[in-house]
Amino acid sequence: MPMLLQSFGGIVTNEKAQVLSEKGTPLFPNLFAAGELVSGYLDGGYRSGDALMFGTVSGRIAAQSMQ
Ligand SMILES: Cc1cc2nc3c(=O)[nH]c(=O)nc-3n(C[C@H](O)[C@H](O)[C@H](O)COP(=O)(O)OP(=O)(O)OC[C@H]3O[C@@H](n4cnc5c(N)ncnc54)[C@H](O)[C@@H]3O)c2cc1C
Question: What are the pLDDT digits (tens) for 9-33?
């Protein structure tokens, strides 16, 4: 089964894990993204464990942000 490892592009989100539009504002209030499909969390370099930790943390933030 194909899987992702190290995406350096992807969906842009804010601190609440809301998906942002090109203007930098939430695309929809309750549209969230977490994990590997989110852009930018690797900050230019891959360190073992970052991806799984980010998936856990960003998923928790998205869940907490849901209204
Ligand atoms: C070979 C390899 C080694 C890795 N080693 C490490 C490591 O050592 N340390 C580390 O931190 N990270 C590592 N990673 C990266 C880490 O595994 C991923 O970053 C992490 O699993 C991403 O989690 P995710 O929940 O974002 O996505 P995924 O784990 O890919 O989960 C996405 C889920 O969505 C499901 N899905 C897809 N399409 C649909 C659909 N249309 N409807 C419903 N479900 C759907 C998929 O079946 C899958 O279960 C590795 C990755 C690979 C491939």
Answer: 789 999 999 999 999 999 999 999 9
* Pairwise CA distance, residues 21 & 12, whole Å: 8
The CA-CA-CA angle for residues 29, 59, 4, to 5°, reads: 110
| Contact present, 41 and 56 (Cβ < 8 Å) | no
Give the global pTM: 0.87
Cα(6) to centroid(ligand 1), Å: 10
Ligand 1 atom closest to 50 (CA): 11
Q: Which residues pair with 38 in a beta bridge?
A: 11
